[in-house]
Design brief:
Elements lengths: L8 E6 L4 H15 L4 E5 L25 E6 L1 H14 L3 E5 L9 E2 L3 H10 L3 E5 L2 E6 L5 E6 L2 E6 L6 E7 L2 E8 L1 E5 L7 H4 L11 E7 L9 E4 L4 E5 L6 E5 L2 E6 L4 E6 L4 E5 L5 H8 L13
């Protein structure tokens, strides 16, 4: 699987509302500390890193920098942790306490093995593409953000339709009324984009996915573009607001004349890998795919 250096400092990020996760986090921290690894546990939002009991991932005033971020929770916790890890350019290891846990590398019953392999440096690191976004409103205010899974422009009012146009590398591709458009990384292709009818893209494919949602147009197909492409979405609706959403969290509202530009981020996510399981096997197991098909057993 690969040989890495034993981490000297680990930041453990947990789900803020689950006591069972907090208890296991304490046990995990105790096991790491007994092996002379500095550990802090972060249970709240990212801003909680300013709390004096938190081991800062990035701190200009001290050298207290984590070597690895360990996320205990579901995919939401892993997404929250991914931004911390990407900003500090340190590996991220997810342990699943949720339902699907597509982004996690290990399950709760494997914590003992996880600790042992971390201490032995017995793991690999896989680089994953992330996204950056810039949104300009009609007031001229610029919003910048980052996402691991996807960036979406969606209608903010359920009963209304959003008028959008899409440009790829400066060329207008289409214009339509729709519920929105999702732009996903290969990792995020199995999240929001897939539920909207987009393709599943293997994580090592150098591409981005553009998926219109319930669009009224002759050409409203999902598109797979090169990761170097620049995707620009413009809001044309008058009287209907859009919402800019990064990894499921709303960043700002968009009105007519607003533009959103999405690119591959210069800050990828470095995921810890402890299993040689191919992506196809992970896809089948995590999504419980009925691989036999409806004709199984028929003559």
């Amino acid at each position: 699987m690969g040989s890495q250096q034993k981490p000297g400092r680990v930041l453990v990020v947990t789900h803020p509302l689950r006591e069972d996760v907090a208890e296991l986090a304490e046990k995990l921290a105790a096991a790491l500390r007994s092996a002379d690894v500095a550990v802090r546990i972060l249970t709240g939002e990212i801003r909680s890193l300013r709390h004096p009991d938190a081991l800062l991932v990035v701190d200009e005033e001290t050298s207290a920098t984590a070597d690895l971020v360990l996320a205990l929770g579901g995919d939401g916790t892993v997404l929250r942790s991914a931004k911390l890890a990407a900003e500090a350019d340190v590996p991220l290891l997810g342990v699943n306490f949720g339902k699907v846990g597509f982004l996690a590398e290990a399950e709760t019953g494997e914590l003992e093995t996880v600790v042992s392999r971390l201490l032995d440096g017995d793991y690999g690191v896989e680089e994953r593409t992330a996204l950056s976004v810039e949104a300009t409103g009609t007031d001229g205010e610029l919003h910048r953000s980052w996402a691991f899974n996807d960036i979406a422009v969606e209608k903010a009012e359920p009963a209304r339709m959003l008028e959008l146009f899409i440009e790829i590398d400066g060329t207008r591709i289409s214009r339509y009324g729709c519920d929105g458009v999702a732009v996903a990384s290969p990792t995020g292709s199995t999240a929001h984009a897939m539920s909207a009818g987009g393709p599943v893209v293997w994580p090592d494919v150098d591409a981005l996915v553009v998926v219109p949602m319930n669009a009224h147009a002759l050409f409203a197909k999902p598109m797979v573009v090169h990761s170097s492409s620049e995707i620009r979405i413009g809001v044309e609706s008058v009287g209907t607001e859009g919402a800019l959403i990064a990894d499921g969290k709303e960043l700002t509202r968009l009105t007519a004349g607003s533009t959103v530009t999405i690119r591959r981020s210069a800050r990828p996510v470095r995921l810890v890998r402890m299993s040689g399981q191919p992506f196809a096997s992970r896809l089948v197991s995590k999504l419980s795919l009925p691989v036999d098909g409806w004709r199984h057993g028929r003559i």
